[in-house]
User: Which sequence fits this backbone?
């Protein structure tokens, strides 16, 4: 019996994603989009939802980050052994790219949850001897190469993934597109449904798009224009050949370029943003489309430190499967909460010393900033006024940890990393600081648990959702964030954390407001009212944990999107 057979009869939903964070040893993700997909898979397993996940094998990973002596990012491949974690399946399909067949083999990874439910994950691989040498590398490097390489990857994911599901025997009723990368899947489905009245007049779509919309769900994740993949139609014609007439594609994917977001919007019957504010922004970006809001969540057992997990067992048995039970976390004993936090903090500081050689003090508060290094995230906002920062630290000492990768082609993000290291040298001996290289899932778990304050400074409304602050909150770490993304929904000033500025403020005020809040509210509370600080820790767990979790998120998708 094939290892895929137990899943064939029950599986009805296919979740397509360019990246997915299944475990630290499998380098099939780059950041938040992939981590969300991984948490989605874990909750699908917990809830026994009939979902199969489809992604790329990404044998060479995304990037392994090193920092040179001057503070610059060095990009290296980050290979991993596919055969150590996944099983090749006896199926091959081909997608014609540049006029030649590119063969694709699926590998199976089975994700099993603690109560023994499982979901299958298919990792698509073109590194086969059947393929021409250039084609073998298509699925190797996540987000690597130029636009042509990226379009080839998206053809393999969308067109090849849909064909492989058929070849393996899946009977899929709903296809969930996680961001626009798999949008060619919807176009592949479209080709199966010629218009019921025959070929309409020239200039009309020759396929029954309503049939496809009944099957497709689309989650858009980014309000950043650069985050929406667009390809020249000349490249599309050269690579995709006769997959679909360019004139037909233009009707559903944009007249100027093949816009994958536009393609997904036009062929999906259910579309959602990943936070209430993001859905509002997406409706402004794409007027005329019905875009709902399903706020992201995180997989609670994955991101909760074991010390806190043991506490939760006492007041909320089965909290991992049903995070809503964490509403009673405000009843935890103060001493127990502080002891659990102290253990998480010791683990973090030990990791900092191992990675950087820097010894930090457990009695000083740790401010952490860790996310993708790119312009709109503004990782340099804290350094806008070094003299002010120095003055704050002299009165109320704190320590700072930063981590994050810049995309290999994001020169602005690399400049930010270099600038952060320049500031670290300027502040050496005055503010204890460390930049932790190669930010990944394993390091994230330690950081979100052991920090005292989780800092987030995006330029509104550019933060679609953000989930790292949710993970921090599960461990009683208090958020200090600009009001954007998910934080607008979770923020209760002085209860679950603090806002930087007010909703709708001009970005030029955010540095000033950040310093004022640190100096006048956050650090004084840490030093002078430990009881109130611990009370806030319990409030953030009990108010954020039950709501901003991937169990709740997947129940909403199941009831509102999959069963519509």
Assistant:
């Amino acid at each position: 019996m094939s290892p895929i057979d137990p899943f064939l009869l029950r599986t009805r939903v296919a979740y397509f994603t360019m990246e997915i964070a299944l475990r630290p040893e499998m380098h099939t993700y780059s950041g938040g989009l992939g981590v969300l997909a991984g948490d989605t898979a874990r909750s699908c397993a917990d809830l026994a939802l009939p979902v199969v996940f489809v992604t790329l094998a990404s044998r060479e990973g995304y990037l392994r980050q090193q920092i040179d002596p001057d503070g610059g990012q060095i990009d290296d491949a980050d290979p991993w052994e596919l055969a150590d974690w996944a099983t090749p399946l006896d199926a091959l399909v081909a997608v014609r790219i540049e006029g030649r067949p590119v063969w694709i083999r699926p590998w199976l990874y089975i994700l099993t949850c603690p109560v023994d439910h499982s979901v299958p994950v298919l990792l698509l691989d073109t590194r086969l001897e059947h393929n021409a040498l250039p084609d073998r590398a298509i699925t190797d490097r996540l987000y690597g190469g130029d636009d042509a390489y990226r379009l080839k990857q998206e053809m393999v994911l969308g067109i090849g993934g849909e064909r492989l599901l058929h070849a393996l025997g899946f009977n899929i009723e709903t296809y969930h597109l996680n961001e626009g990368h798999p949008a060619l899947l919807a176009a592949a489905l479209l080709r199966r449904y010629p218009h019921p009245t025959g070929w309409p007049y020239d200039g009309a779509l020759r396929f029954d798009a309503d049939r496809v919309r009944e099957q497709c769900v689309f989650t858009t994740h980014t309000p950043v224009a650069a985050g929406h993949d667009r390809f020249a139609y000349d490249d599309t014609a050269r690579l995709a050949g006769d997959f679909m007439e360019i004139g037909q594609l233009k009707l559903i994917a944009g007249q100027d370029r093949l816009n994958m977001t536009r393609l997904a919007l036009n062929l999906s019957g259910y579309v959602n943003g990943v936070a209430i504010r993001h859905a509002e922004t997406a409706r402004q970006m794409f007027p005329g489309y019905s875009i709902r809001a399903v706020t992201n969540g995180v997989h609670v057992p994955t991101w909760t430190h074991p010390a806190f997990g043991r506490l939760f067992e006492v007041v909320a048995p089965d909290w991992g499967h049903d995070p809503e039970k964490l509403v009673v976390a405000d009843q935890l004993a103060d001493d127990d909460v502080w002891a659990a936090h102290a253990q998480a903090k010791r683990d973090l500081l030990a990791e900092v010393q191992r990675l950087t050689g820097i010894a930090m003090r457990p009695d000083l508060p740790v401010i952490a900033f860790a996310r993708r290094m790119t312009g709109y995230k503004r990782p340099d906002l804290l350094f806008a006024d070094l003299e002010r920062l120095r003055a704050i630290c002299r009165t109320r000492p704190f320590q700072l940890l930063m981590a994050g990768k810049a995309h290999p082609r994001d020169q602005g993000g690399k400049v930010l990393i270099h600038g952060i290291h320049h500031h670290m040298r300027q502040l050496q001996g005055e503010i204890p600081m460390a930049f932790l290289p190669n930010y990944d899932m394993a390091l994230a778990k330690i950081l979100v648990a052991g920090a005292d304050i989780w800092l987030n400074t995006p330029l509104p409304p550019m933060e679609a959702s953000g989930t790292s602050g949710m993970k921090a909150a599960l461990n009683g770490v208090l958020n200090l964030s600009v009001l954007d993304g998910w934080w607008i929904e979770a923020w209760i000033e002085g209860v679950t954390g603090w806002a930087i500025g007010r909703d709708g403020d001009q970005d030029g005020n955010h540095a000033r407001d950040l310093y004022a809040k640190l100096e006048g509210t956050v650090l004084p509370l840490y030093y002078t009212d430990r009881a109130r600080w611990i009370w806030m820790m319990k409030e953030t767990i009990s108010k954020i944990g039950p709501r901003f979790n991937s169990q709740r998120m997947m129940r909403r998708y199941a009831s509102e999107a999959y069963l519509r």
Q: What stands out?
A: The longest strand covers residues 100-112. DSSP finds 21 helices and 20 strands in the chain. Residues 334-356 form the longest helix (23 residues).
